[in-house]
Automatic annotation (TrEMBL):
Keywords: Signal
Cited Pfam families: DUF3108
Name of the protein in its database record: DUF3108 domain-containing protein
Signal peptide: 1-18
Organism this protein belongs to: Marivirga atlantica
Entries under InterPro entries matching the protein: DUF3108
Length: 242
């Protein structure tokens, strides 16, 4: 009887642990996809070093459902037009899974256009004036697009104490390789300008011990609120304007 009790305890503990750890692979439908916010909003990006705040860069994010040749997609775009810098990107993903299809980025480098496949990311040769035509990044498995992390994180299976693993890559990056990243979930009541006191989910990651970062989302409707990160003594912030 003692052995049976021990087996039941171990089985329960194992089951509870499994429920708290989730590995999300590209191509699997997100259960919370229907809660993805199809909207346009603005947020600011700025840094703080030695107590001095940089001039904020105003950015606009837009998530839309579109159709191309009878096929449904989600188009996620960010744009920023400021005296200090300007640019934009537009990422195309499949609905329900957010599996990346393509992305076009405009910056001081010029136009960078990429096509995502299961085994590689390549320069989009059909894009005119693409400075990334010769780009190729081999993949051991499909990855999510790091450029749309704010939107991707918003529909994760949030649960207090949960650990989540996901594969990501930033197309065109010269500093990071495709790989899996670890995230943990907690919750917090915070005061938000324009909203008051809000119940939030907090997503924690350190990007493989390089940059401790936290993201806040409203529990009510999964809206992005803010991001705080630390990198080499500098604080980095993204703050939504409500």
């Amino acid at each position: 009887m003692k052995y049976l009790s021990l087996i039941l305890i171990v089985a329960f503990a194992t089951s509870s642990f499994a429920q708290k750890v989730d590995s999300i692979r590209v191509g699997e439908p997100f259960k919370a996809f229907d809660q993805l916010n199809f909207e346009t909003y603005e947020f600011e990006v700025f840094t703080v070093r030695n107590g001095k705040k940089s001039v904020p860069i105003r950015m606009k994010s837009s998530t839309k459902a579109i159709e191309i040749d009878g096929q449904e997609y989600v188009n996620i775009s960010h744009e920023w037009n400021n005296p200090q810098m300007s640019g934009s990107f537009s990422a195309l993903v499949e609905p329900h899974t957010l599996k990346p299809v393509s992305q076009i980025r405009h910056s001081k480098k010029g136009k960078e256009a990429y096509r995502f496949y299961d085994d590689k990311i390549v320069g989009l040769d059909s894009a005119i004036d693409n400075v990334a035509t010769d780009y190729i990044q081999a993949l051991s498995e499909p990855v999510f697009n790091f450029e749309i992390d704010l939107e991707t994180y918003s529909i994760l299976p949030f649960e207090e104490g949960k650990t989540i693993y996901m594969p990501f890559h930033h197309a065109g990056s010269q500093y990071t390789e495709p790989g899996w990243y670890k995230y943990t979930v907690s919750s917090e009541q915070i005061n938000v300008d324009g909203l008051g006191e809000v119940a939030t989910w907090v997503l924690h990651t350190d990007y493989k011990r390089t940059q401790p970062t936290k993201f806040w989302y409203t529990k009510k409707d999964r809206k992005f609120i803010k991001m705080e990160a630390e990198y080499k003594g500098m604080k980095i912030y993204k703050v939504r304007r409500f």
